[in-house]
Structures are given as structure tokens and as C-alpha cells.
Amino acid sequence: MALERTFSIIKPDATRRNLTGKIVAKLEEGGLRVVASRRIHMARRQAEAFYAVHKERPFFGELVDFMVSGPVVVQVLEGEDAIARNREIMGATDPKKAAPGTIRAEFAESIGENSVHGSDGPETAKEEIAYFFAGSDIVG
Ligand code: GDP
Predict the structure, then answer these.
(1) Which ligand 1 atom sits nearest the alpha carbon of residue 117?
(2) Which of 45, 83, 99, 135 has its CA 20 to 30 A from that of 127?
(3) CB of 104 shorter than 6 A to ligand 1
(4) How far is CA 10 from CA 3, 53, 114, in A?
(5) How confident is the model at residue 2 (pLDDT cuts 50, 70, 90)?
(6) pLDDT at site 63
């Protein structure tokens, strides 16, 4: 096991329903520590660049529209195997398939409006953290 950092977003469907605290509680109860956090309203070009890997997917336009539809909370999470741990706590992309007790099973509205984002590997975690935070913003 290794101490790792991962990148997380609390998405607009969750901030709209005032679920930020409940989601952070699940992350903390799952063993992760919030070492950086900022509430922002993403610019369209920022959301397009962040999700550039999904550019060719049929839902890309819908995804970008959703991510700029309201505020989000961008966060850096730290903990043992934080990348995998965060994805476990989040649950499957589609809330209908997410395990009971996960954030998406409890809070997500649909496969698109699914309350949270989490990095899927060490390289993306590093890139995504650097996209939103300077090293000095992160206090472990
Ligand atoms: P994740 O790693 O679990 O977030 O899932 P993906 O990397 O596959 O997809 C990224 C994000 O795109 C998801 O979290 C959803 O917000 C969105 N998404 C994925 N599949 C669909 C879909 O079929 N329709 C829509 N509207 N959005 C989707």
C-alpha cells in the first residue's frame, strides 16, 4: 500500500442539491483526506479540455453542458491507494450499477449526472491535479 493523491470533482448535480458535505463525509469515512479544495464554476473551454479524452464520444456535448451548468468542487484527496479507494467509494459510473452505500448509488441522478469524478490512474491523477492546483495549494 502506498500513500497516494487523486483528483476529485463534486459535480453540479450534487452542489445544486447541497450534497457537498455528505459527499465529503463519505470520502473521509472511507479513509481519504481532503488536502486541497476549491469551489469553482468551470469555463466551457476548461471543461472541454478536462474531458478532451471523451471528445469523440456521443455524450461529449451533453457532458460539457452539464459540467458548466453550475458550481463544482475540485479537490485533491490523499490516502492509502487513494486512486482505487476513491473509485470504490464513488461506485460505478451508472448509478443503477453502483454498489450499495457508494456515493453514486446514494446520490447520483443518472449515468451523466453522477455526482462525482475521480481520476482513473496515476498519470491522469497527476495531470488532473496539476490542471487545477499549484503545488502550494495542497497541504497534506
Ligand atoms: P467515470 O470514470 O466513472 O466518471 O466514467 P467515464 O470516464 O466513462 O465517463 C466520464 C463521465 O462522462 C461520466 O462520469 C459521466 O458524467 C459521463 N458519461 C459517461 N457515460 C455517459 C453516457 O452514456 N451519457 C452521458 N450523458 N454521460 C456519460
Answers:
(1) 4
(2) 99
(3) no
(4) 22, 19, 9
(5) confident
(6) 98
